[in-house]
Amino acid sequence: MKTVEYCTDTPVTRVGDIQVTSLLDGWLSLDGGAMYGIVPKTLWEKQLPGDGLNRVRMAMRPLLVRTPTHTLVVESGIGQAILPDLHERYGIERTGPTLDELVAAQGVDPSSVDTVACTHLHWDHSGGLCKLDGAEYVPSFPKAMYVVQKGEWEIAANPSNLHKASYAPESLKPIEKRGQLRTIKGGGEIVPGVSFDFTGGHTENHAVIWFESNGEYGVFFGDLVPTISHVPTAWISAYDINAGGSYEAREALYPKVLERNARCFFYHEPEYPVGRLVKDGRKIRGEPIPRQDRA
């Protein structure tokens, strides 16, 4: 069985004049069968072995993105949105600092972060958008505009019975209350050089995020492709609300990623936060980018 060498540092990648730092908010363990859907255990456990409870241990890696004109955070980790009594159920191991503290550790004043963007708002991706100030949630970045998909916000802020287990609305509402919310419907620019590409699939309103600078490209997959082992087109999580939609989104997205030779950022990847797509005949796989090749 494969031994996983967990990446616990914060690798930096250049995309033209854009600098992308993969942060680490902690770890999450979810059922391997759910994470890999129809893929048999005999195949997926060779990529990411399960523990004694059949759970696979995954990272939560928000991005700190510095462009020539903006300082962004993409995704937010789990933060303080999930009560401690649920941590054991989901195998949550947080490293301790809040998201603004993770950013400050990179030498960036949290008050200089002007934009925060999310591919979607499930609690393991949006829980750090706000932090607790006593018993009250407040935005982690007081001067930032929070940019999300319109339909995603509407579901997350008032989840139905279908969605309520996936969202933590009370940790999100202060963003709107304080006038820091900006919604986009579909694809569109977040800031110059950073944009949404609408995919659906994992959630009804999921969107990946592109980086573009000086003819170079990067793509942050969110949960459309949560780890590098999920790259094969049919390796789709059972957590996706529309697995067929995820398959179609990958078929549409992958040719663009390959054509642009885009650096790929994987939010839940435990070993290789940054990689690329490689086409072998009719199949597509993920391949890590060595540290020396990221600059």
Provide a brief overview of the structure.
This protein is an alpha+beta fold.
Commentary on this structure:
It is a single chain. The protein has a single domain, classed as Metallo-beta-lactamase, Chain A (4-Layer Sandwich), CATH 3.60.15.10. The longest helix has 17 residues. The model has no long low-confidence stretch (mean pLDDT 95). It is an alpha+beta fold. It contains 7 helices and 19 strands. It has a 7-stranded mixed sheet. The chain has a 7-stranded mixed sheet with strand order 13-14-15-16-17-18-19. A 3-stranded antiparallel sheet has the order 4-3-7. The radius of gyration is 18 Å and the shape is globular.
Topology, pairings included?
Blueprint: E1 12-15, E2 18-22, E3 26-31, H1 32-36, H2 41-44, E4 55-60, E5 63-66, E6 71-74, E7 93-94, H3 99-104, E8 115-117, H4 123-126, E9 130-133, E10 136-139, E11 145-149, H5 150-157, H6 173-177, E12 181-184, E13 188-191, E14 194-198, E15 207-213, E16 216-220, H7 243-259, E17 263-265, E18 274-280, E19 283-288
Total number of domains = 1
Q: What CATH first level would be assigned?
A: Alpha Beta
Radius of gyration: 18 Å
Average the pLDDT over all residues and give the rounded result.
95
- Count every helix, treating DSSP H or I runs of 4 or more residues as helices: 7
Shape assignment: globular
Beta content comes to: 25-35%
List unreliable stretches of 5+ residues: none
Task: Classify the helix fraction into a percent range.
Answer: 10-25%
**Order of neighbouring strands in the sheet with most strands:** 1-2-5-6-8-11-12
**CATH homology-level superfamily:** Ribonuclease Z/Hydroxyacylglutathione hydrolase-like
